[in-house]
Design a protein that fits this description.
With 322 residues, this protein is an alpha+beta fold. It has helices at residues 16-26, 69-75, 133-140, 156-171, 177-200, 208-222, 231-238, 242-251, 256-272, 282-288, 294-305, 309-321; strands spanning 2-6, 31-33, 41-49, 52-60, 63-67, 81-96, 99-103, 108-112, 116-132.
């Protein structure tokens, strides 16, 4: 990872104030404070996995970082990314949306761009993944439901996420950009599955039906290549009756089968427009999205987008080259 900011560059003595000033100038509109004297050292390193940013934030000495609401409004901060923080060392306390939580080594927390209070204690280190907001909210709903909610290391799915990303970060340079991007997407699916499990134990009963639908949508994303996936199989995977799942989808103005086909087609369209998939045959993309034949795929794709898959790919290429 590339070091982009470090207190090694600050003059001896007070390293904390220059550190906060440079963070504000280059990256985060934060205010910093310390509740104790003593040495302070910090380092920020950046990298990426596909189109997902990754940073490693390390510091020695306790400190508190605050982003205030008036700063968010004044700077009109972009909020199209959610930060998934994987804690590797030390203890952090996060306050966002009136929810306070503690993160210890092995824990995960999701934060959004907005008013925030973050207290890092003693020696602290975490990896922060910048994930497009829509990739999580499309499946889990509004981020305010789960920001600052800790996924504990003891939860089996949390351990799976942390070990997956630790290995992916380690070997990322050995992967092609396309493979790294796909692995990153798999990792996001794991995060969504873990958070859905956590939410099922946390939220009020009034939200339970919404969460079942969100879990069902996450399941569809993870199994989009399975041509046998249908409403009955999805209901069984969610542990509810088909009738109950149909009712829950209907409450959101959707039909289950309609949602599955829409996701198959939209994912296929995204892959057709992706330069990293330009080498793949259209039939291969169709089968990868759960279509049983290329002719069926072409027919449904044209009905949905008004052009054949081949024309859609060419049109997307011309747009990118323009």
């Amino acid at each position: 990872m590339q070091t982009v900011l470090t207190t090694d560059e600050a003059p001896s003595g007070n390293t904390f104030d220059p550190w906060c000033e440079r963070l504000r100038e280059k990256y985060f509109p934060i205010e910093g404070s310390r509740d104790e004297d003593g040495p302070f050292q910090a380092r920020l390193e950046l990298s990426s996995i596909g189109n997902m940013t990754v940073n490693r934030f390390t510091q020695t000495g306790s400190a508190r970082y605050t982003i205030r609401d008036n700063v968010v409004r004044k700077k009109n901060l972009r909020d199209d990314t959610l930060t998934v923080s994987l804690r590797t060392r030390g203890v952090a306390q996060t306050l966002q949306h009136d929810r306070t939580s503690i993160q210890r080594p092995g824990d995960i927390v999701i934060r959004e761009v907005g008013p925030l209070d973050l207290h890092l204690r003693d020696f602290s280190q975490d990896f922060n993944l910048g994930v497009p907001r829509h990739k999580i909210e499309n499946l889990l709903g509004n981020a305010k439901i789960y920001t600052s909610l800790t996924l504990e290391a003891e939860q089996a799915s949390t351990s799976l996420v942390t070990s997956f990303f630790a290995e992916l970060i380690r070997i990322r340079h050995e992967l092609s950009p396309d493979t790294a991007a796909r692995m990153g997407s798999i990792g996001v699916d794991l995060i969504v599955a873990g958070m859905a499990d956590r939410l099922a134990r946390e939220v009020p009963r009034s939200l339970h039906g919404t969460l079942v639908v969100q879990r069902a949508k996450a399941y569809v994303e993870a199994h989009i290549g399975d041509p046998t996936l249908d409403p009955a199989q999805l209901a069984a995977a969610m542990g509810v009756s088909l009738r109950r799942l149909q009712e829950l989808f209907k409450e959101q103005g959707r039909q289950i089968a309609e949602w599955i086909w829409e996701r198959r087609l939209n994912i296929a369209a995204g892959r057709l427009a992706d330069r990293g998939s330009a080498h793949r045959q259209i039939a291969d993309l169709a089968y990868g999205c759960g279509f049983s034949s290329q002719s069926h795929f072409s027919r449904r794709f044209k009905d949905r987008f008004g052009m054949t898959p081949r024309d859609y790919r060419e049109h997307a290429r011309l747009r990118m080259d323009a």
